[in-house]
Design brief:
Elements lengths: L3 H4 L33 E9 L9 E10 L2 E9 L8 H7 L3 H4 L5 H11 L4 E4 L2 H14 L9 E3 H8 L10 H8 L9 H19 L7 H7 L5 H6 L11 E6 L5 E7 L2 H7 L8 H9 L2 E6 L3 H15 L14 E5 L7 E4 L9 E5 L2 H14 L19 H4 L13 H17 L3 H16 L3 H28 L4 E6 L5 E7 L2 E8 L6 H10 L15 H11 L5 E5 L14 H19 L1
Parallel strand pairs: 1-4, 4-5
Antiparallel strand pairs: 1-2, 2-3, 6-7, 6-8, 9-10, 9-11, 12-13, 12-15, 13-14
Helix pairs in contact: 6-8, 7-8, 13-20, 14-17, 14-18, 17-18, 18-21
């Protein structure tokens, strides 16, 4: 039934829900989306059904015509025994009677021939979700694998190509009359399929004016893309099918958005498809005038270049990785009786610090955890070894050893408060963790669960920061490291890392020993001098991307200037505890929201 929206009584479609087609799946049907329309093989199909929902049966007739370049290549037509009585209104509409279907084969016998007929072709139908829904359901019901072909819907294409002034609606009968098809639709499968072939050719002839000349463009053109996407889709032309970074630029050459992909051309093209629905990206596309591509050796180099470009230019439509300079640190102040202070950076003279933190709030949360565990003073006064300052309420509550009143010597304060912080951040946080766990246990025993949850969040902040800093410092302390990872197409992806910064990257060809390529990379690599702290020469995010690449099972360490190790008693051994604390906080949040 081709004109279902016009001729079938409402009761015929009461249970049917039209689903979107996966017609632009890059892997669908093995058809290259860049294949020109004139070279594409189409199978135009039409079904007649009993009018119910697609439940694996209900098909009464299949008609299919295979065409390419305007030439008919083959025809498949057969009646199908649905195994159920045909409603009288279907017989009136199609002329197909119960007696005609009794000797017809069931759908499970028809499917093998039909699936072979549509192999390596683009499937075309008028109101395609209806026909494809029945065919997919039949395959699922009878154990056949649906080949997931690319699908072109002539009804959807007509809505994009033809105006209301040209045709009042997009029914097959209306379009057949408009294009003066050789075969008129008759509510029989083969006639309707042949009429759809002529309609398809008429629509393709109109696509040239819209700069649509490939099957991928035609499928996407038929979908609900915005006028801006359609107008700007030429920006995706001529880009390389290679890993790298792409930059959307405005008319004044200002970067608007920076992204990365293993296939730049395919990724940028996706911004101009119906799958892209983000409002901020639509706004960005309206302002974009060109797309610049930066090819990279492999995915790691692309990710690092993306981070550096975002950090350098702060594109307005990127939400993440901007402003790396806004990271903050938790540092012990100079002078007698140090306290914790949130600062923008650390200097070579600093010996007690933790970070970097993405925000001041997370740094203050970690500071509160240390204040719960060790007797660091919290007041902001600059204390003197000679002059006494009045104590605050924390001293009266026993939460501070009152160095302001000289109740504790500088040496004792360092031993009880300062050294535990330095030890926890640089090597072993066990005493701090034990103190916070003990406090959580006391609060829970007293049924003060909300306060216990607050301490748990502080413990999480402390562990997350110490694990992160020690992990970063282990890599950034290495002057040079060369690593290799098998490339997808053979050969090796190579990376040269100096003090946690990607200094060089390349790919060695298949069948060639990678060491000459490593030597060439080293000769042209960026010079990276040593520095102070866990991220001396790169952002924390860049070093973490490198760490993730290095820690993959398939990555091999080729050369290192020194050993790569973390403290045996370091914070990493508390990863399980950190995971449990994070999961508990997430569960609590979801419970509160529900």
């Amino acid at each position: 039934m081709s004109d279902r929206d016009a001729s079938v009584p409402p009761m015929a479609q009461t249970e049917y829900v039209q689903e979107p087609l996966a017609g632009f799946d890059p892997g669908a049907g093995g058809i290259d989306p860049a294949l020109p329309l004139h070279a594409t093989t189409f199978v135009v199909v039409d079904l007649e059904t009993t009018g119910g929902a697609p439940d694996g049966g209900g098909i009464t007739e299949i008609g299919a015509v295979k065409v390419r370049g305007g030439e008919e290549l083959g025809v498949l037509a057969t009646l199908v025994n649905p195994g159920v009585p045909i409603p009288p209104f279907i017989t009136v509409l199609t002329g197909i009677t119960q007696a005609m279907l009794v000797p017809a084969p069931p759908i499970e016998q028809v499917l093998p021939s039909f699936l072979e007929f549509i192999s390596d072709a683009v499937l075309v139908a008028h109101n395609a979700p209806y026909d494809v829904g029945f065919l997919k359901a039949a395959c699922a019901a009878h154990g056949y694998r649906w080949p997931n072909p690319r699908v072109l819907d002539t009804a959807a294409l007509a809505r994009r190509v033809l105006t209301r002034d040209e045709v009042p609606n997009r029914k097959l009968g209306t379009l057949a009359a408009y294009f003066r098809t050789a075969t008129q639709p008759t509510h029989r499968a083969l006639d309707d399929a042949k009429a759809t072939v002529d309609v398809l050719h008429g629509l393709i002839a109109r696509l040239g004016g819209h700069r649509v000349d490939t099957i991928g463009d035609a499928i996407e053109f038929a979908r609900a893309v915005t006028p801006t996407q359609r107008r700007k889709r030429h920006l995706a032309e001529g880009l390389p099918k290679a890993p790298g970074v792409y930059i959307f630029r405005a008319a004044d050459d200002r970067p608007l958005y920076v992204g990365t992909s293993g296939d730049i051309a395919t990724r940028v093209r996706s911004y101009f498809t119906a799958a892209e629905k983000r409002a901020r990206i639509s706004e960005m596309l309206a302002a974009a005038e060109r797309v610049e591509a930066v090819e990279c050796a492999h995915s790691l180099e692309a990710e690092v270049r993306e981070l550096r470009l975002i950090g350098a230019h702060a594109p307005p439509y990127n939400r993440r990785s901007k402003f790396p300079e806004r990271a903050v640190w938790l540092k012990l102040t100079d002078g007698p009786y140090p306290r914790l202070s949130v600062v923008r950076g650390i200097s070579p003279g600093d010996t007690g610090y933790l970070g970097p933190f993405s925000s001041r709030r997370t740094a203050e949360l970690a500071a509160a955890g240390f204040h719960d565990a060790v007797p660091l003073r919290q007041c902001t006064h600059r204390l003197s070894l000679r002059t006494v300052t009045p104590a605050c309420a924390l001293a009266e509550l026993g939460r501070c050893p009152a160095p302001c009143e000289h109740r504790i010597t500088p040496e004792e304060y360092d031993a009880r408060a300062v050294e535990p912080f330095r030890t926890a951040t640089a090597s072993d946080p066990q005493p701090v963790v034990d103190a916070l766990l003990a406090r959580i246990e006391v609060l829970s025993r007293d049924q003060r669960y909300e306060e216990a949850a607050v301490v748990r969040s502080r413990l999480t902040a402390v562990l997350r920061a110490t694990v992160r800093m020690q992990r970063l410092a282990a890599l950034t302390g290495i002057a040079e490291l060369a690593a290799a990872r098998p490339a997808a197409r053979g050969g090796w992806e190579l990376a040269l890392v100096r003090h946690g910064r990607l200094a060089g990257a390349g790919v060695s060809p298949p069948g060639v020993h990678p060491r000459p390529t490593i030597a060439a990379i080293r000769a042209t690599a960026e010079t990276v001098p040593p520095g102070h702290g866990p991220i001396p020469r790169a952002s924390a995010e860049e070093t973490e991307r490198i760490l993730s690449w290095l820690e993959r099972p398939e990555t091999r360490l080729v050369e290192m200037s020194s050993g790569w190790a973390s403290p045996v008693t370091g914070a990493a051994r508390f990863r399980d505890l950190l995971s449990k604390a994070e999961n508990a906080a997430s569960h609590q949040l979801s419970t509160e929201r529900s």
